[in-house]
Amino acid sequence: MSASAQRIALLCGGYSGEYEISLQSAETVEKHLRASGFEVYKILITRAGWNYIHPSGQHLAINKNDFSLTWDGNKIIFDAVFNIIHGTPGEDGRLQGYLDMLGIPYTGCNAITSAITFNKAFCNKVVESFGIVKVAKSVHLVKDQPVDIAKLAEHLPYPCFVKPAEGGSSVGISKVKTKAELLPAIEKAFAEDQQVLIEKFIKGREFTCGVMGNGRQEITVLPITEIITQREFFDYVAKYTPGASEEITPAEIPVHLANRLRDAAKTLYLKLNCRGLVRIDFIWEEETADLYFLELNTVPGQSANSIVPKQVRAAGLELSDVYRQLIEDCLQRAATTQVSPYDP
Questions:
Q1: Given this model, what pLDDT does residue 284 score?
Q2: d(Cα 317, Cα 12) in Å, to the nearest integer?
Q3: Is 49 left (phi over 0), alpha (psi -120 to 50) or beta?
Q4: Radius of gyration for the chain, computed over Cα atoms and rounded to the nearest angstrom
Q5: Of all helices (H) and strands (E), which one includes residue 74?
Q6: Where is 149: in which H helix or E strand?
Q7: Which of 153, 167, 269, 338 could share a disulfide with 274, CB 3.0–4.6 Å?
Q8: What is the model's pTM?
């Protein structure tokens, strides 16, 4: 590494069921950042501790007071953070708020946008208020708050989805077809989160759009992917098992539908004040031609089987260039807001 190479802290791991996917994403990001000349420090975030993983396998604790590392008697500070933690605390605003307090630049959305979009129930309400796309009808449950499950079961349309309100990679999600399946599905979702969303099933075609921007309205929508799976829905197995689903990139759809998806993705990106690289999922209901918002991921997967890297390649771009752009953007953002890392 050059002595002048920028030091990047690559955060991975996390506290959720997406831990393993984050580690896989980190492998991809680390390889491309190193190839671009960055000095990469992979930092594993777990409930047991925050540790730099030295290439020798040695774990060195991070000083959380200023997010620094001491190695061979030298204090190492970072020029920027590349966040690749899916789920909490990297996708829900917690780490973003911590880094903001320290004045350390980081990739991706800010704390408020991350927190709002991470909670599916709250994000749906915000997106619905924009009037850009439709949002499926839903019921929001909070753990330990009273609810009459029997009464609820009587009035739900079946099939429906029961999912953790805060979570990703389809962990804890169930497709419920009968009243008898509802309570076990709710219990399964509550095992992953303190809040649960019960959402009406929308029959249609599923599309996902990777979107990149730098906050100056220079927004790029990557080639659209259509997701086709033979399973009940695009669950964890379908997402991460090769051959379990078909992901067609670019989607084979009419120009008018592609334009509609791109416009919706770009508008939502702006209105939700997103930064960096996100992925936005939609359902197109063919019968009515209505476009439904599904969810927005502020830290989309970058593993070998993840969708966004495939979209990047389909756009004729290099992952190393995309990752470099994300770092340059967060450094520029810090400079324009006059945020200096490690200011006393």
A1: 97
A2: 24
A3: left
A4: 20
A5: strand 74-76
A6: helix 149-155
A7: 269
A8: 0.89
The CATH classification number of 7-107 equals 3.40.50.20
d(CA 319, CA 32): 7
Dihedral class, residue 215 (left if φ above 0, else alpha if ψ from -120 to 50, else beta)? left
Q: What are phi and psi of 331, to 5 degrees?
A: -70, -40
Q: Which residues contact 243 (CB under 8 A, 6 or more apart)?
A: none
What residue segments make up the domains of the chain, in order of their start? 7-107, 115-134+202-324, 138-200
Per the DSSP assignment, residues forming a β-bridge with 197 are: 140, 163
Reported as type and span, the H/E element at residue 226 is strand 225-229
Q: Which amino acid is at 263?
A: D
pLDDT for res 72: 84
Q: How far apart are CA 84 and CA 319, in angstroms?
A: 14
Cα(198)–Cα(185) distance, rounded to whole angstroms?
10
Question: Which residue numbers in the chain have pLDDT < 50?
Answer: 1-3, 234, 238, 339-344
Q: Please state the CATH superfamily assignment of the domain spanning residues 138-200 in this structure.
A: ATP-grasp fold, A domain (3.30.1490.20)
Assign domain 115-134+202-324 to a CATH class. alpha beta
Q: Tell me if 10 sits within 8 A of 33, measured CB to CB.
A: yes
CB atoms closer than 10 angstroms to residue 53: 17
Is the dihedral angle over the CA atoms 169, 218, 114, 318 positive or is it negative?
positive
